[in-house]
Amino acid sequence: MRVTITAAISAVALAATPAAAQEAKPVEEQIGAGGRPVGANWSRSPVIAQHGMAATAHPLATQIALDILKDGGNAVDAAIAANAALGLMEPTGNGIGGDLYAIIYDPKTDRLHGINGSGRSPKGQTLDQLLERLDGAEALPPVGHLPVTIPGTVDAWFAMHKRFGKMPMDGILAPTVRYGREGHPIAPVIAMYLDRSLQAYTRRQETYDFSFDNARATWFADGTAPEAGEIFKNPDLANTLEKIGQGGRDAFYTGDLAGVMVDYLQRQGSAFTLEDFADHSSEWVEPACVGYRDGFELCELPPNGQGFAALQMVNILKNVDLRQWERGSAEVIHYITEAKRLAHADVARFYADTDFFPVPMDLLREEYGRKRFALIDPAKATPEFGPGEPKLEGPGDTTYLTVADKDGMMVSLIQSNYRGMGGGLVPDGLGFMFQDRGELFSLDADHPNAYAPGKRPFHTIIPAFVKKDGKPYMTLGLMGGGMQPQGHVQVLINIADYGMNVQEAGDTARINHDGGRQPTEALTGPSADPLGTLNVEPGIPASTVEALRDMGHNVRVVDNGIMFGGYQAIARDPDTGVYTGATEMRKDGQASGY
Fold it and tell me: Annotated binding site for L-glutamate: which residue ranges?
């Protein structure tokens, strides 16, 4: 029997006040937020510091980032260190078996740099061969070897480090190596997600044939998930990171680690080869920015991710002044929801690996946004939106973190294994799980996002950056699948239209529209769920919920916060250089500075 500090405290609390007594009361009779001398009573103060700032989904990862900054590293060094730590401490959200995207503001050149660190499918497997392996299934499975794509995170680390890093990589990874061997206490929300993951993989083993033994030995050795407060160790991952720190990028993609990964995958039936791993590389890409109002600009990375969907939403919503209504009104939520649905109709039709299908830059033009806005009925939800007709000319469960340093460098980084912890496969003795990102390929040969050899699937993870009056203003990220672009826009609206600070902008109740046509569906035929479901948090007024239902929205109130993302942000005062950081109440995270 495991006894933890959290469990002991909970036992005392239960003896004094049974939790069931609180839960049994109607929401309106339960105790609410306390008072605050300044700001909204449902939020807390943002963190303000002068020399450096980090905001991550785990307090220990935040501290590691600050330690790197204090030891002479810059924001890129600290972001890599924090990301490595989160792969150990928050394996439910990310790890080196997954992919990475980042936006880096370089004060020396006054430029934004974007990196796409997503991996590709096996070069030796065609769509026809994949369909044969699927044996009649209409989509790729969420587990096993078929949805695995090359893990891109490690290569992205070294690409970022080569261009901007200052500290040696072995020193950057050393704190996580130490925690992996000595252990760290499991955080409460992560403990909940670990338990959910174990239950999900157990259920999937009833449907899918995949190997879960290595994953079980790594995280669930006694048959249960680690509890909050329990000391957890992962010496296999520590050894892997130590080899990467000493041997560099090639240790992972061409050396002994690559051999272990490929041998393991091929035993599962995978088509991956050593050549696939050796040939992998990240891509430096140009972020695109779209102006909103009052000097605010939102910046995102191009496909294969879904960042442009947020920019499309901005171009649609700038055609109506939301400030004429209260933030929690049905009108504001209706316009945000319809803008999201319009943007995602285009996502499902046009977003894919740009090496195979060029992104229609017409999607980001103000005129196109006006045309899409004109399709919104202000009084009711439109049953179904189709994609627009842009001109086809032109040149993605998750963790988000952000770090800023004393020189003004700011890093907005997001990293993920996709669904849950990944596809359930852990290579022998390496301590991390492969992503299942390939599940997001379409099996329609005519779709831009169709599976093809050596191709990157559509991606959900997206980092963001905000400019104000042309100057760098804020890093921003909000993890969680399709929640991400609509979350970015909601935070921007909270700040630009309603004057919230960076902490309030994340703490306030959010919406998550789910449904509509998907990038995995066939181009032709009806959508499985054209209207979708508008999920709202309990902080949305009951009168607004009823008004939205009267407008034709399928509204569901969800009170556990899980589907509404995990937010982190850092804002920089352009005059003083002082940083203001915020983190997510729906996660275990911490923003801190010095």
Answer: 481
